[in-house]
Design a protein that fits this description.
Order of helices and strands: HHHH
Protein name: Four helix bundle protein
CATH architecture: Up-down Bundle
Pfam family, one: 23S_rRNA_IVP
Radius of gyration: 15 Å
Largest sheet: none
Number of strands: 0
Strand content: under 5%
CATH superfamily: 23S rRNA-intervening sequence
Low-confidence stretches: none
Shape: elongated
Distance between the termini: 32 Å
Length: about 120
Protein backbone atom coordinates (compact mmCIF):
# COMPACT_ATOMS: atom_id res chain seq x y z
CA UNK A 1 0.00 0.00 0.00
CA UNK A 2 1.24 3.48 -0.88
CA UNK A 3 2.55 5.53 2.02
CA UNK A 4 0.39 8.67 2.06
CA UNK A 5 1.53 12.07 3.18
CA UNK A 6 -1.38 14.49 3.33
CA UNK A 7 0.80 17.61 3.37
CA UNK A 8 2.88 16.38 0.43
CA UNK A 9 -0.23 15.49 -1.58
CA UNK A 10 -2.14 18.69 -0.79
CA UNK A 11 0.83 20.96 -1.47
CA UNK A 12 1.43 19.24 -4.81
CA UNK A 13 -2.22 19.56 -5.83
CA UNK A 14 -2.13 23.21 -4.78
CA UNK A 15 0.94 23.75 -6.98
CA UNK A 16 -0.91 22.23 -9.95
CA UNK A 17 -3.82 24.55 -9.23
CA UNK A 18 -1.46 27.55 -9.05
CA UNK A 19 0.12 26.70 -12.42
CA UNK A 20 -3.35 26.61 -13.98
CA UNK A 21 -4.21 29.85 -12.18
CA UNK A 22 -1.05 31.45 -13.59
CA UNK A 23 -2.04 30.41 -17.12
CA UNK A 24 -5.50 31.91 -16.59
CA UNK A 25 -4.04 35.21 -15.35
CA UNK A 26 -1.51 35.40 -18.17
CA UNK A 27 -3.71 34.26 -21.05
CA UNK A 28 -7.18 35.50 -20.10
CA UNK A 29 -6.49 38.49 -17.86
CA UNK A 30 -3.24 39.61 -19.54
CA UNK A 31 -1.64 40.01 -16.12
CA UNK A 32 2.12 39.41 -16.34
CA UNK A 33 3.68 40.71 -13.12
CA UNK A 34 1.65 39.55 -10.12
CA UNK A 35 0.94 36.24 -11.84
CA UNK A 36 4.66 35.40 -11.80
CA UNK A 37 4.85 36.25 -8.11
CA UNK A 38 1.95 33.96 -7.22
CA UNK A 39 3.39 31.22 -9.47
CA UNK A 40 6.75 31.39 -7.74
CA UNK A 41 5.49 31.47 -4.16
CA UNK A 42 2.56 29.10 -4.73
CA UNK A 43 4.68 26.36 -6.26
CA UNK A 44 7.47 26.84 -3.72
CA UNK A 45 5.24 25.52 -0.94
CA UNK A 46 5.24 21.98 -2.29
CA UNK A 47 8.91 22.17 -3.29
CA UNK A 48 9.87 23.07 0.28
CA UNK A 49 7.69 20.27 1.66
CA UNK A 50 9.52 17.82 -0.62
CA UNK A 51 12.87 19.18 0.58
CA UNK A 52 11.75 18.93 4.21
CA UNK A 53 10.85 15.28 3.77
CA UNK A 54 14.45 14.66 2.71
CA UNK A 55 15.85 16.78 5.54
CA UNK A 56 19.11 15.82 7.18
CA UNK A 57 17.80 16.43 10.69
CA UNK A 58 14.67 17.43 12.56
CA UNK A 59 15.94 21.01 12.66
CA UNK A 60 16.42 20.96 8.88
CA UNK A 61 12.89 19.55 8.55
CA UNK A 62 11.50 22.36 10.72
CA UNK A 63 13.47 24.99 8.79
CA UNK A 64 12.19 23.82 5.38
CA UNK A 65 8.58 23.62 6.58
CA UNK A 66 8.93 27.11 8.06
CA UNK A 67 9.98 28.38 4.64
CA UNK A 68 6.98 26.58 3.10
CA UNK A 69 4.76 28.36 5.63
CA UNK A 70 6.27 31.74 4.70
CA UNK A 71 5.68 30.99 1.00
CA UNK A 72 2.06 30.08 1.76
CA UNK A 73 1.54 33.38 3.56
CA UNK A 74 3.16 35.27 0.69
CA UNK A 75 0.90 33.47 -1.78
CA UNK A 76 -2.13 34.51 0.26
CA UNK A 77 -0.93 38.13 0.01
CA UNK A 78 -0.66 37.97 -3.82
CA UNK A 79 -4.10 36.39 -4.12
CA UNK A 80 -5.63 39.11 -1.95
CA UNK A 81 -3.89 41.75 -4.05
CA UNK A 82 -5.17 40.18 -7.29
CA UNK A 83 -8.70 40.22 -5.87
CA UNK A 84 -8.48 43.78 -4.61
CA UNK A 85 -7.19 44.98 -8.00
CA UNK A 86 -10.05 43.24 -9.81
CA UNK A 87 -8.04 40.57 -11.63
CA UNK A 88 -10.01 37.81 -9.89
CA UNK A 89 -13.40 37.66 -8.25
CA UNK A 90 -14.29 36.98 -4.63
CA UNK A 91 -15.32 33.37 -5.30
CA UNK A 92 -11.99 32.38 -6.86
CA UNK A 93 -10.07 34.28 -4.20
CA UNK A 94 -11.95 32.55 -1.38
CA UNK A 95 -11.44 29.13 -2.95
CA UNK A 96 -7.68 29.61 -3.29
CA UNK A 97 -7.35 31.11 0.18
CA UNK A 98 -9.38 28.24 1.67
CA UNK A 99 -6.86 25.76 0.22
CA UNK A 100 -3.98 27.91 1.48
CA UNK A 101 -5.42 28.14 4.98
CA UNK A 102 -5.66 24.36 5.06
CA UNK A 103 -1.99 24.06 4.07
CA UNK A 104 -0.95 26.69 6.61
CA UNK A 105 -2.80 24.88 9.42
CA UNK A 106 -1.08 21.60 8.50
CA UNK A 107 2.33 23.27 8.28
CA UNK A 108 1.97 25.08 11.61
CA UNK A 109 0.74 21.94 13.35
CA UNK A 110 3.59 19.80 12.02
CA UNK A 111 6.18 22.47 12.85
CA UNK A 112 4.88 22.81 16.44
CA UNK A 113 4.74 19.05 16.97
CA UNK A 114 8.25 18.57 15.62
CA UNK A 115 9.64 21.46 17.70
CA UNK A 116 8.08 19.90 20.81
CA UNK A 117 9.66 16.53 20.03
CA UNK A 118 13.07 18.18 19.58
CA UNK A 119 12.74 20.04 22.88
CA UNK A 120 12.21 16.81 24.85
Amino acid sequence: MKNQNILKDKSYLFAVRIVKFYKFLKDDKKEFILSKQVLRSGTSIGAMVEEALQGESKMDFIHKLSIANKEANETRYWIRLLKDTDFIDEKLSQSLIFDLEELIKLLVSIIKTTKNSVAK
